[in-house]
Amino acid sequence: MSDSLLGALAAARIIDLAQPLREGMPCSPTHPGFHLALTRRHGDAARPDGMTGSHELIVFGGHVGTHMDALSHVAVDGRFHGGAPVTVENGRYASHGIDEVAPMVCRGVLVDVPALRGVGRLPAGEPVTAEDLRNADVRPGDVVLIRTGWAQLWHDRDAYLGTDSGVPGLTADGAQHLAAAGVRAVGADTIALEHVPAGSGLASLPVHRILLQDNGINLIEVMNLEPLAQAGAGEFVFVGAPLPIVGATGAPIRPLALVEGPPDRVTPG
Amino acid sequence: MSDSLLGALAAARIIDLAQPLREGMPCSPTHPGFHLALTRRHGDAARPDGMTGSHELIVFGGHVGTHMDALSHVAVDGRFHGGAPVTVENGRYASHGIDEVAPMVCRGVLVDVPALRGVGRLPAGEPVTAEDLRNADVRPGDVVLIRTGWAQLWHDRDAYLGTDSGVPGLTADGAQHLAAAGVRAVGADTIALEHVPAGSGLASLPVHRILLQDNGINLIEVMNLEPLAQAGAGEFVFVGAPLPIVGATGAPIRPLALVEGPPDRVTPG
Amino acid sequence: MSDSLLGALAAARIIDLAQPLREGMPCSPTHPGFHLALTRRHGDAARPDGMTGSHELIVFGGHVGTHMDALSHVAVDGRFHGGAPVTVENGRYASHGIDEVAPMVCRGVLVDVPALRGVGRLPAGEPVTAEDLRNADVRPGDVVLIRTGWAQLWHDRDAYLGTDSGVPGLTADGAQHLAAAGVRAVGADTIALEHVPAGSGLASLPVHRILLQDNGINLIEVMNLEPLAQAGAGEFVFVGAPLPIVGATGAPIRPLALVEGPPDRVTPG
Amino acid sequence: MSDSLLGALAAARIIDLAQPLREGMPCSPTHPGFHLALTRRHGDAARPDGMTGSHELIVFGGHVGTHMDALSHVAVDGRFHGGAPVTVENGRYASHGIDEVAPMVCRGVLVDVPALRGVGRLPAGEPVTAEDLRNADVRPGDVVLIRTGWAQLWHDRDAYLGTDSGVPGLTADGAQHLAAAGVRAVGADTIALEHVPAGSGLASLPVHRILLQDNGINLIEVMNLEPLAQAGAGEFVFVGAPLPIVGATGAPIRPLALVEGPPDRVTPG
């Protein structure tokens, strides 16, 4: 290997964009939440040399925690993006599953909406429109991450979900803008990425339809974009690949941003 | 961002090192296997505009599929690596959990043992010793991946697990060699990474003890190293971060190798 | 078989005392809730003769829905009822598990507290004391069921759980009264059986301690006692056996009451 | 309550017909097996008075362990028993679910086939035909239990499942005979109740079709009929009600037999 790649990366700072997974964390009631129980614990049974092992049972879903939506997550009139009919085989989707998403190592752009508006965090139910995206230098193949500041509410489940108050996020015209720009994926630091007005719930999800079904663009939800914003990194290398769950409609992902700077390792608090 | 990092990466080829996750795939009987069922399917309930959503319920464990072992996976006499006593809080480990592993973007080395020996795949129960590692250019902080060719058996569950016949893998002296070299993590394309002689089962796991407990070096198991070997990449950039499950003894990971070459995207078949 | 037993039973009315199990039903946040997803559906794959099969994946816990608490549910200073030390084997309790509970076919008594007080349902946080039980004809070996009317709130999750407002139920002196009478089990139509004053949550559970740990008396929670009250059956044959889950701290149960009367079959609505 | 019912029952012996539920028990690979992990253990967190609580996370399916098949388990050409079209609502069947099965307290008949043939247990792949049932005193509304002796193999998973060797059980003509007699349910001590010839697997399930779809008769599988046979009880009171899981295709059940005799309590070993 030439030294250029490793050298370039050695000088990069790694920023973790995932929220930690634990029991009781925010999760839409549509999904099963996150459950973990230790099946065996140290001390349950020791080998003659004193060594012990421990492991766990885990229950969750493809849309729990920081995750990517597959194209199979949404259909219109029984058809996926591109017109293929919805087909189930062996209890999962025969096409458009999250396992079809190739690992992403590409240019990333952060749209820091609170910074644009001079606030620490967007209010509940606040729309993020095409106007907010106008000055972002978005190029074909980019992954665009939209910060609302909502990750600050991660430890306040009700506030984070915004069931009554709504959630800030991307509007339909904003989604059209990004689709027209040819982006590869769009992420956000909220439960559903898109604008949820107060009191409206998730009955209508136009951004999911525009990005996933109309344009074949994957979504990434429940990200933690605070460290990236603090690093002031509007442009970075995005690295992310969802768990390759065959035929699933979504899967957890641990996305990273590689930014210029000292090779500090930034980990979740 | 300077163009050097993105430019260097744009010229890299991305090789996926994970096995796909699906029902019935090989899994040690110690662990719960992988189970997925669609909770809602397209067509179950359509919105007025014809849009439908689908999602799933998933059951697995921290040591199912391609995964990383946390330091909390192994203890000796009730102590983790470094001597800290095993402590459980809220039903999970209070320290040494997989969430403490920082994302890895670093130099990677492939030890292609079948290639060294001129075979397509190591036989069942074959040891991989310090002698096999002697000529590998291993440096402090590297992730070292040991190929046995066992990923070729992924679709033959019994053969892959090698319950009776044993599994090829790293021996205690091989593990000592890598620990002395100061590696950051060690991975392999088998169920338990280490040498399992025919008929011995997993009653004794000296390599787990040496790497995890004695030296604080994480393991990565159930990798797919065939595409990396086919690319002839002995040296590469390793990128990997396990799902940050708080206090877990292990977690799924989708590791990638970035190698010189045309920017083909290699995905699991 | 003599005809007496069958003849006697043929004249009995069967009353179902269980709540139906479904996604989203009330469940303490301590427990994982109830999750079901169809693994295969009719139509996924047809046999040549047109026959299709369907089945599901289920996630829940030992204390979800109508269930019985095992003696292993509670310990004091590391000891179960009778003084045996808490011991875990193979990841479950080596003794006092729910599988040790023999099936119950015995006399049952309904204490209909709202009827005693002339109300339709007890208010939130209302205590049910020894005084309320004084006139009940309770005999050694009986199963005593305490109705609060709370099953009427089954479809209002927040009201049923009473997180802020409290839940009506048995007090410590009521539990002592029943223990002194030598009952075999005590059931109720609430989430925790015992009195939960407004704002106190489940921090203190004296009735669980008195019945399970001090006296070895099993509890049955989340029952539906409305049909039994409507039948005016103060005395009946109780039939119930929890799922025999080895070493579990609780298990679902579908208890029945057999009462005099026409052989109507009463099923859950 | 008149004393007759309670008196008659007090003189009855209770025989448990369920197999215990534990990790690693026999289960068809079609289903997820049984998984339990303690979420909290005694000692994890003590209240000031020394009291501790423990509970678990459970994963299984509607056809794991001793269970009853609902009419929704089988369809033919998209229709359930009676001709109703298969309909899914909220991710489960809108009709014919296991929750529609009324609790059963009725006459039970044991057909002890090994006893009829003078053997301890039927061989693998042995058919149980209408001829075997000819002398059984079966009446309308009965629950008929067919013993093969296969419960003796419960602790030998491979032998019990009989994947290669086949499993003894009811043939199509035997099922027709029982349907013509007007039985309410049919149970057996094997994984699939019906005759599975060596090497044929579960590709064809005529008995499931005849009983569930053609005749609306529920099946009970994975019973333990050894204690009932040892008691020599050919006729008894059957008591059984599956967990009322709304819209499920099957559910666990703990069936009991009440037989004449001393009031011994027989529990699983």
Automatic annotation (TrEMBL), chains A, B, C, D:
The organism's place on the tree of life at top rank:
Bacteria
Identification of the protein by name = Kynurenine formamidase
Show the InterPro entries listed in the entry.
Answer: KFase/CYL, KFase_sf
One Pfam match = Cyclase
Gene3D superfamilies according to UniProt = Putative cyclase
Instruction: Give the source species.
Output: Amycolatopsis thermophila
